[in-house]
Each structure stands twice: as C-alpha cells, then as structure tokens.
Backbone:
C-alpha cells in the first residue's frame, strides 16, 4: 500500500511559501519552536515503547479536544509514523515539519500539522511535544503567538492529566538541558548568496556567535549549506524570557539582511564577471539539463532567485522559488508522483519540473553584452 | 532534594567503594561535601556522568536530582540559571495559592501573638499558655510547594 497519502494530506503550497512578513527578499521564513514534556513520562529517548504510544495517544487526544478552542489546531492532520513509508516520512523533513532524528524511528512518533503546515507538532522527537510554527518572511512575533496559543490550549488540557514538566528554577524541563527554560528556539531562514560570493559568510558566522546566536546550515544543526540558505537561531533558552529571545534573533536577522542587501548592491561592481557567469550558468543548467541532482538544482535555483531580486532575471515570483525549493526534494518528488522513484529517474523528473518554470524566465540585456562590466545600470535591488 | 535520591556506592548496583574515584569526585563535584561517587535519579536511574556524556536528562525528576550540577552548567552555557518567561497556568495558580496561604498564616500568627501579649499583660497565664501552644502549631505549619 503506497498510495500518495501525504500528497492529499497537505497543501502543496505551504504557508511559509506564500507572501508575507518583512524582508522577504532575504528572509525566506521564520520559525518558532516550543519544547514541552509531560511530567508523568520519561523523556522519549528513555521512555518504554508503551509509554511512547501513550504519549502520542494523549497528544492526539489533546489536539482533538482543543481543536475548537482558541489557539487550537482545528484542521490538524495527525500522522502516526507507523502508517507511512520511509520516504513519506522523509518528505516531512522537506516540508520542514520533522527532523532526521525524528523520522529515524517510527514507534510512537508522529507529526500533527495544519493543512498549510503553518503550525505543527512533533511528537516524541527529542522532547514529548515540540510545537512549531512556520511563517513566510521575517515575523517571529506572529510565529511565536501562533505557537504560544497552541501551547496554552494543550497545557490546559494536560493540567488535569499530570501536567507539563516545569520547575520554578529551570522553567520548562526538556530532554536536553540546552533547551530548558523557555524551551524556545526562534530561527530565520536567510538567503545569503552575495555574502557567500563576497567571502564574508565566516565573518557573519563569528558575528552571530558573539551575539550568542548560531548561523547554521540549511537543515539546522551540523548540516551543509544548500542554495546559500542559512539558519539563524538563538542558543540560550534559560535566563532570558521569550520576548528577549525573539528580539535578539529578529534584530540580528535584520542586520544580516541589511548586510546581504549591501553586498548584493556591490555585486555588479565588485564581482561583475563572476556574478554574471554564475547566474548565466545556473540559468543554462536549469533551462537545458535533462537530469539534475537536488544539490545542484537547489544551488542553481538560489542563484536565479538572486538574479530575480537584482532585476537581472524576471518571470518567477518569490512564491514559486519557495515552492520549487521544496518540490525538487527527493522525497517530495516521490510524494508528488505517489510512488518510490529510483534516484536516476528522480533526476529526470526534477529537470523536467524545473524546465517548465525556468522557460518562463527572461534575462536582462547584461547577459548578452560582450563586456559585462558595462552592464551596471539595473543593479540596485528594490 | 531529598537524600533518597542519593545512592551510596556499594549499594544496589554492587559497585565497590573506590577511594580514588571518591577523592576525584570530591574535587570535581559541586556536592563535594557528601561522600557520594555517583548519584542516581530515583525515578529513571540516570547518573550525572551519563547525563553529561549524553547531553540529555532522563526525566523531569533528573532536574531535581542533579539541580546543583545543572545549575553550575547552566550558569556557564546559558544566560543564567534562573528561568524568566512563561509560566504554565497550573504552576501560576499553585504559586498564587501558596502566597495566599503564607499570607494567611502570617496574619494568623500576628493576631495570636498580639493576643498572647495582651493575656500576659493581663496576667491570664492559663490562656497565654494555650495561645503559646497554638502559635507553635501554626508556626510549624509547612506551607510549601508540594
């Protein structure tokens, strides 16, 4: 039974892919995650299978009972991992509503999410409950409000049923003490190609570190950078309140956006040939390739997105760039086609999908002039 | 934190008392005062060494069992060791009730003390003795979080 369940479960265009939020030319999405645990059970990595099942059962019950309450998840899709294949679970990572560690085991694990995946709950990942909200652009406050309301709703349900693990001193108790306190992780996905081309990404990383923030790879901790996408997030969760966490991340994100914007404005002068070369190659690859791997496709898309923001390339919206970023993921492609597709065939399907969209792109005259240096007219971003 | 959570070596696990380890633990552990090699969480059996190695606690009770150690770590790795921010409503209610109970007890004590003084001044010693006993009882009332 490999019906394309997940395809019908969620909307293809997630909430975060749509328009919204500030600084959307660079900040793709804002995410707030709250880590919570049930007092009565041991943390997932120590809990017995029966307990894990019970915890998930309870969370499903709680979501169901609070669905109509303020802040509740009314249209929650409840996915128990045992019911899905490995690649279907993998596609949840592509949608940013699960994690590698989470899908590695199926027993008692699960995800609940609204149809547009704007708000979701991971069950029995590192903690019993991880409430997540994911919104477009830079808008950590709104993202927090969504997650916080669902947290309130779930908490009041669990109040009479053992309660949430919390202490006066350490706040919300989490499996990993690095999350204890507020249990809040606020992160912003930043598109920083100009900083990468200018070789300034290491400096940005240090700068973030000095602020006690982390600038990490595309898929979070320990991951590589794909498509010039970097995740900025807070490190500290104890000793400061939620508002401070959000403010620190948001301010740093805005500064990084400003820096990236300056770097983009300087590209036509400082790195004219290189930028034209890379963008042109990216276009050529996506326009004419018949087989393409996910990594290469992501990097090419990223460069075309940069070109689009610089007005060098026209014809695709930010939303479409966001969508393509996810639709070309290996697991997601398989979900789209409702079957397990071998890697080589996926590369063909990916190239086909991208070609349809890239055909609509129009390049500015700078790409056709012999001297790239002369084409500095349309360089400043909006 | 209660002593029940602390398991002396040579206990259930049959570990022998290792003098060197003991001395080492005296230097390392913030709880150097007690002759403990490794304490265990009474609920899930987690030890501090394992927690530190793995980076994960076993259950909510671990945070009570290893409060001292965690406090020391948190002060270094986090922005401080005290929680600021959201409080679950249940905890908030509990805290309010506690404050209310304490306030009421203090008020009661104050009244009793005044009556005691009055009765002593009036040389009503029998009543004074009764009041004194009552004060003792009220004073020993534990108004705690549990």
Residues:
């Amino acid at each position: 039974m490999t019906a394309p369940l997940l395809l019908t479960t969620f909307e293809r265009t997630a909430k975060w892919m749509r328009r919204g939020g500030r600084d959307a030319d660079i900040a793709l999405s804002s995410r707030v995650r709250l880590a919570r645990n049930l007092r009565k059970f041991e943390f997932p990595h120590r809990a017995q299978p029966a307990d894990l099942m019970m915890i998930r059962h309870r969370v499903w019950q709680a979501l169901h009972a609070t669905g109509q309450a303020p802040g509740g998840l009314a249209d929650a899709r409840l996915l128990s991992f045992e019911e899905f294949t490995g690649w279907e679970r993998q596609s949840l990572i592509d949608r940013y509503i699960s994690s590698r560690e989470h899908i590695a085991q199926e027993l008692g694990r699960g995800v609940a999410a609204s149809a547009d995946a704007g708000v979701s709950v991971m069950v029995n990942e590192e903690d019993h409950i991880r409430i997540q909200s994911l919104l477009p652009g830079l808008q950590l406050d709104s993202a927090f409000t969504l997650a916080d309301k669902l947290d309130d709703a779930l908490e009041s349900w669990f109040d009479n049923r053992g309660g949430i693990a919390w202490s006066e001193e350490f706040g919300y108790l989490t499996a990993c003490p690095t999350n204890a306190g507020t249990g809040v992780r606020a992160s912003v996905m930043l598109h920083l190609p100009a900083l990468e081309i200018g070789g300034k990404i290491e400096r940005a990383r240090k700068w973030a570190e000095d602020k006690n923030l982390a600038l990490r790879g595309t898929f979070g901790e320990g991951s590589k950078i794909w498509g010039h996408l970097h995740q900025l997030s807070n490190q500290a969760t104890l000793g400061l309140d939620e508002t401070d966490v959000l403010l620190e991340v948001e301010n740093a994100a805005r500064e990084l956006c400003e820096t990236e914007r300056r770097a983009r404005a300087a590209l036509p002068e400082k790195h004219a040939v290189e930028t034209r070369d890379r963008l042109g190659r990216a276009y050529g690859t996506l326009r004419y390739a018949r087989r393409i791997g996910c990594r290469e496709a992501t990097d090419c898309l990223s460069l075309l997105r940069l070109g689009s923001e610089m007005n060098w390339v026209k014809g695709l919206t930010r939303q479409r760039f966001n969508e393509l970023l996810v639709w070309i993921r290996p697991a997601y492609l398989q979900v789209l086609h409702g079957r397990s597709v071998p890697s080589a065939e996926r590369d063909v399907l990916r190239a086909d999908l991208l070609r349809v969209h890239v055909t609509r792109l129009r390049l500015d005259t700078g790409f056709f002039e012999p001297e790239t240096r002369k084409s500095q007219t349309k360089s400043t971003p909006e | 934190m209660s002593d029940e959570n602390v398991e002396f070596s040579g206990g259930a696990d049959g570990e022998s008392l290792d003098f060197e380890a003991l001395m080492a633990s005296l230097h390392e552990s913030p709880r150097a005062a007690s002759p403990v090699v490794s304490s265990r969480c009474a609920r899930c059996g987690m030890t501090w060494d394992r927690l530190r190695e793995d980076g994960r606690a076993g259950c909510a009770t671990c945070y009570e069992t290893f409060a001292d150690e965690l406090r020391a770590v948190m002060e270094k790795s986090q922005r401080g060791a005290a929680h600021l921010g959201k409080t679950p409503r249940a905890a908030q209610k509990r805290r309010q009730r506690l404050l209310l109970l304490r306030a009421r007890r203090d008020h009661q004590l104050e009244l009793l003390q005044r009556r005691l003084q009055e009765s002593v001044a009036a040389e009503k010693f029998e009543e004074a003795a009764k009041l004194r006993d009552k004060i003792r009882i009220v004073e020993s009332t534990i108004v705690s979080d549990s």
Q: What stands out?
A: Residues 374-382 of chain A have pLDDT under 50 and may be disordered. DSSP finds 13 helices and twelve strands in chain A. The two ends of chain A are 50 Å apart (CA to CA). The longest helix of chain A spans residues 242-270.
